[in-house]
Task: structure prediction
Amino acid sequence: MKKIIMVLMVFILSLSVMACGGSEGQTKGETYIAVTEPTFAPFDSTDEDGNIIGFDMDLMNAIGKDQGFKVEYKAVEFDALIPAVQSGNADMITAGYNAMDKNRQKKVDFSDTYYDSGLVVMVKQDNDNIKGIDSLTKNMKVTSQTGTTGADLAIKLDKEGQIKEAVILNGFDTAILQLQNGDVDAVIIDKPVAENYIKKQPGEIKIVGETLNAESYGFAVNKGNTELLNKINDGLRNVIESGEYEEICKKWSIEGVY
Result:
């Protein structure tokens, strides 16, 4: 009888531990992996210690806090963003990502948009020949960051014969370096990224012409991951309504849309 009682006590204790373990896991919440290409300041960049920082990170962290999850950020090349979530190596994309792109919409599911943007042409400060996209000519090279809508536009101009060559590079910083060195004549990039660079490095580069190709940014998850997508959308809505979104915009000198 004593042996039976001891066995029953051990069994009950085991059930209790398992129940406590399950409760603890729910309390702690999940940690999701987010991928980005951190050369896209102020949305995605790195600090002096190599930590990934930016508007996207602060906004997603606020969403995670509201919804009870944490996020770990990893850097990949721009072209590897979608394959990372499709393969299960990442849960989401937080990269100033154009949610209006039809090709991307076929591969990933986008959250509600959180920022409206557009493209601009950047040239060296002393360049008075290029006054906008219509001033680009057949003897000029134009660069942009791979996988972006800026790259799509540069390639389109190349195919149409308006420019000599579209030089597509892995990072925005590399594109700017090419412009500074005189290897290319212009850069096509997202407006807030251009404005952020000019603010930090005044007198080197300028924006010419009008804003092109209006687009909106969203976070992305793998196709069919409605559970995570709903968390992001619910959290985004709450962060906007609470006023925290506006505070994050002020921190990164971004004009929000809400």
